Amino acid sequence: MKTNLTRACIAFAFAILSQSSFSQNVTTPRPSTAASVSQTVGISTVNVEYSRPAVKGREVWGALVPYGWNVQGFGNNKEAPWRSGANENTIIEFSHAAKVQDKDVPAGTYGLFFVINKDNTGEVILSKDYKSWGSFFYEAQRDQLRAPIKIRDAGTSTELLTFDFLAVDKNSTELVLSWEKKQFPVTITFPVDEIVLANAADELKGTKGFDWRGFSSAANYSLQNKVKLDQGLAWIDQAITQTKNFTNLNIKSGLLQETGKAAEAEKIKKEALTLATEAELNNYGYQLLGLEQYDKAIEILKLATERFPKSPNAWDSLGEAFALKGDSKNAIANFKKSLALNPPDNVRANSEKYLKQFGAL
To answer: How confident is the model at residue 23, as a pLDDT?
Structure first.
């Protein structure tokens, strides 16, 4: 009786002969359809291209996919891992250098293989030979990475082999192969801050370096993520040299605060506020509200009403700040002031909503 492995070898050989003998055939669908999936982490991408075999009622683990490393009886006749799909290599591409299962992997394209053992231990393998067909010609010395993984039992069965990204955070993602009732998880991590700032430095040598917004956005990333603050200060100084405005001075104030220069930061903040437009004061006030810094937000939004007293939106925003703080008396007064200035529909709706909540309308 022929084994599944022997059948696979015969099918492979037949496929190769068919391609060479009948190269003029029209294109028809493959039984294991092609698929791809990608995920962005920071500004980096991971892309997987693969073919999707179906279970079709077959015994998969230990049968269709043998346990451990196996000699396939075709190709170079060496022990090889599972190709993690069908047809050509499953391939994985990293736009930037990453860590896979906490091991360094350079940017590039690799063949993606797995090994499964009876006890649900396993391995993930990345091979530099990504253009091969399956793992018939696998060469261990061409491995870029070999790392252990813990295979999971899934609660439900997946008929078509599927790759997906089941978890994503700022710096990492979990790539998971799901088939039948098994999941093969692989953790991929990028040094996102390092990549973003290195990319910013490169971009600022081009056309983006001719506009203050480029330097300002790079400095703001440094501030918001608290990384390379000295570089952030250098970038924001370059932005200020091009254009002195509220945005740039506010970012510099934040960077100075983070580097322990509180007095200088306060001085720059005051200068920034003198240059702020109504929209900038409003946006800054809402940023502070988002951080639950209610007193600081009220201070900024009150400044907006003093500088732009005929703006119904300024009074509405100040009313909302008092409302979020829990000061209903001042909130009601400011919402009524907004309504007295004949506000646009969206501002009127917001003021009336709060006044109804307070029973003042």
So the answer is: 57
